[in-house]
Amino acid sequence: MVKITVDMDKCQHYGQCCFEAEDVFALDESGKLVYSKEADESRRADVESAADVCPMQAITVE
Ligand code: SF4
């Protein structure tokens, strides 16, 4: 399993991560980031891409 943590003190809810792994990251109706804390190993590459594009470097992938 891929473990995902977003530092919500850093996250500015821009949503770039959502384009890389839309099954893991999403903006809710109020524009706030919501995300899955675990994803299948097969999703690792896209989750790592999401971490790479985050302008705040708020996403940690383990
Ligand atoms: S890309 Fe980074 S700052 Fe933007 S919503 Fe995702 S985690 Fe938050």
UniProtKB/TrEMBL annotation:
Record InterPro entries: Fe-S_cluster_ET
Stored PANTHER family: FERREDOXIN (PTHR36923:SF3)
Protein name: Unannotated protein
GO molecular function: iron-sulfur cluster binding; metal ion binding
Gene3D superfamilies assigned to the protein according to its UniProt record, in alphabetical order: 3.30.70.20
Keywords, in A-Z order: Electron transport, Iron, Iron-sulfur, Metal-binding, Transport
SUPFAM superfamilies (UniProt xref): 4Fe-4S ferredoxins
Pfam families hit by this protein: Fer4_15
